[in-house]
Amino acid sequence: MNGGQTFLADKPVLVTGGAGFIGAHLVERLLKDGHSVVVIDDLSTGSIDNLKAVDGHPRLRFFQSRISLCPQLDELMAGASYVFHLAAAVGVELVLKSSVHTITNNLNETQAVFAAALPHRTPVMLASTSEVYGRSPKATFSETDDLVIGSPQIGRWSYACSKLLDEFLALAHHREDALPITIVRLFNTVGPRQSGRYGMVLPRFIEAARSGLPLRVYGHGRQTRCFCHVADTVEALVRLKNSPEAVGEVFNVGNPEITSIAALARSVIELLGSQSTIEPVEYSEVFQSGFEDMQHRQPDISKLELVTGFQPQIPLREIIRRTAEFLPPPASLN
Which of 96, 100, 227, 272 lies in the 20 to 30 Å Cα band around 245? Predict the structure, then answer.
C-alpha cells in the first residue's frame, strides 16, 4: 500500500479508521464493488494486518496518520466521493483507562473530518454507537428515543457523551451548512479479525473456551445484548451510502436477535465443544469503582429496513462459529 499511487478515474471513497476491525471489512467490500479507496488510520487500535487481504491493491491508498495531523487531508477530502468516518476509541476497557484521550480524540478527529469536508460538501457517514442510549430502561431502542446518560462521575459514560456530541455536531453542520451527513449507531458488531484485547466479549469468550479456561461473565450475566456479524454491518453501511433518503438521518445498525451474556457464554462452550466453566465476576474486580453497565441493548432497525431494505442474514450461532474459525488456536495447541 503506497501513499503515492495514482487512482483510477473514479473518485475514491475515504475511510477513516480503515485498518480497524469494521473499517478493514468495509475497505474490502468497497474494493470488491469497484471503488477506489483511501484509508487514514494512525494504527493506535487498528492494525495493518487487518488489510492483508488487499495489500498491494492498485485502487487502495493508505496513510498512517491521525486525521487532524494528516497533511494531505484537504486534498483527499476534495477528491473523495464519500467519507466513512469510523476512527474512534474502541472498547469499554480502553475508554475507562483513557477517558481524556477518548473524549478529546473522538471530538477533535471528528471536527477535523467535518472541517475538511465542508468546503467540498463531501458526504460523510458518522459511525456512532448504541452507547448513546445510556441508561435508558427501554427494552428496544429506536432513533427518536430520549437518551439517558449516567453521571459524569462514572467514567464509562465519557465515551457515550463524546459520540453523542459528535452526532449533535454532525446534524448541526447538516442544518446550517447543508453538509450531507448520515449517522449510524452500531450495535455490537462482531466477527473475523475482532480482538478481545479491549474487552470485546465474544472473542474473549471464544479465546477462553478454546484454551479450556473459565469464561468470565461480568455482573449477574442477565444483561442482554444483540450481536451483528460484520458482513451484515458492512452491507447496511453500503446500502445507506447509496440511499439519498438517508442524508440527515440517524439509523440503528445491528441484529435484533437478543441473548443474555450468560447465555452467550453457554452457547460458546456448547458450539466449541469446550470443557470450560462459567465464572461470575464482580464488576469491581475488573473496572474502576462505580462502573455502570447497560442492562439491555436491542436495536429497532425498522427505519433502516424501510430506507434500505436491509435485514441481517447471519444468526448468532453462525456468528459464533465464523468468529471461532478465524481466531488462531491457543499457543499451547499449535
Answer: 227
**Residue 218 known to be catalytic:** no
The topology under which CATH files domain 13-188+230-253 is Rossmann fold (3.40.50)
Count the Cβ atoms, other than its own, within 10 Å of residue 195: 17
User: How far is residue 14 CA from its own chain's centroid?
Assistant: 16
Mean pLDDT across the stretch 297-312? 97
CA–CA separation, 265 and 19 (whole Å): 29
Q: How many other β-carbons are positioned within 10 Å of the β-carbon of residue 222?
A: 12
Question: What percent of the chain is predicted at pLDDT more than 90?
Answer: 75
Query: Which of 133, 159, 198, 283 is flagged as catalytic?
Result: 159
If you average pLDDT over residues 152-160, what whole number do you get?
Answer: 82
Domain boundaries, the chain: 13-188+230-253, 190-226+257-298+313-333
Global pTM reads 0.92
Query: Domain 190-226+257-298+313-333, CATH 3.40.50.450 — does that match?
Result: no
Q: Which of 229, 228, 193, 204 has the alpha carbon at shortest distance from 326?
A: 193
> What CA–CA distance (Å, rounded) separates 136 from 147?
6
Q: What is the DSSP letter of 23?
A: H
The DSSP code for 148 is B
Burial class (CB in 10 A: 0-12, 13-18, 19+), 187: buried
Kindly provide the residue ranges of all beta strands, DSSP E only, lying in 124-246, ordered along the sequence: 124-129, 181-186, 189-190, 215-218, 224-226, 228-229
